[in-house]
Amino acid sequence: MSRILLVQGHPDPVGKHFGQALAQAYAEGAAEGGHELRSIEVAKLDFALLRSMAEFEKGEPPPDIKAAQDSLLWAEHLVVIFPLWLGAMPALLKGFFEQCLRPGFAYEYRPRGFPIEKLKGRSARIVITMGMPALMYRLWYGAHGLKTLRRNILGFVGIAPIRDTLLGMIDAKRAPRMLATMRALGRRAG
User: Residues 35, 54: contact at Cβ < 8 Å?
Assistant: First the structure.
């Protein structure tokens, strides 16, 4: 049994997006697999974007971010689901990570060398939906948005291993298979 934190990163609070259906399928699979699951819908959180290094390093996290940090400390596995916007994650999701993964919480500076990673021992899965074929995103566009989240954000704070699921060309014919994939990932906490 694993403790899973599922982060739904679509910025629209109204809902009814395919990413929410994917999150629901994952949650159902996790329940079937006997795992504990907590969910965060980034669009429903109340936080401002950070605007200075002083705010990032020394500012007090807003209550919703503090609760998200507590859930991240609780979790053994992190699942992040979001739509690809202009080749990367939506700005609100990036702002969430900037607020949540602050120095002191997610890592510590050292006088020399790489920072001390404080979130080691956790794994992650990144799920990205997109209108183009996933292979085109990987090969032609270089998957830079995925690489940024994988290496420069989650990897930077010690989360590993990090796996990904890229879902492209979503339509009524492919959607049931994608939902089944998410349910299976949830069952095995993958």
Answer: no
- Supply the CATH number for residue 173's domain: 3.40.50.360
**What is the per-residue pLDDT across 130-177, written as a single tens digit (0 to 9) for each?**
999 999 999 999 999 999 999 999 999 999 999 999 999 988 899 999
Handedness of CA 50, 54, 57, 63 (dihedral sign): negative
Domain count, the chain: 1
Supply the range of the domain harboring residue 12.
3-187
Q: What is the pTM of this model?
A: 0.96
Helix or strand (DSSP H, E) at 9: none
Q: Which residues contact 133 (CB under 8 A, 6 or more apart)?
A: 168, 169
Q: How far is CA 41 from CA 11, 38, 118, 143, 148, in A?
A: 8, 10, 24, 24, 21
Cβ(8)–Cβ(42) below 8 Å: yes
Residue 165 φ then ψ, to 5°: -135, 115
Region class of 30: left (phi > 0), else alpha (psi between -120 and 50), else beta: alpha
pLDDT band at 112 (very low <50, low <70, confident <90, very high): confident
Q: Supply angle C-alpha 126, 181, 8, rounded to 5.
A: 40
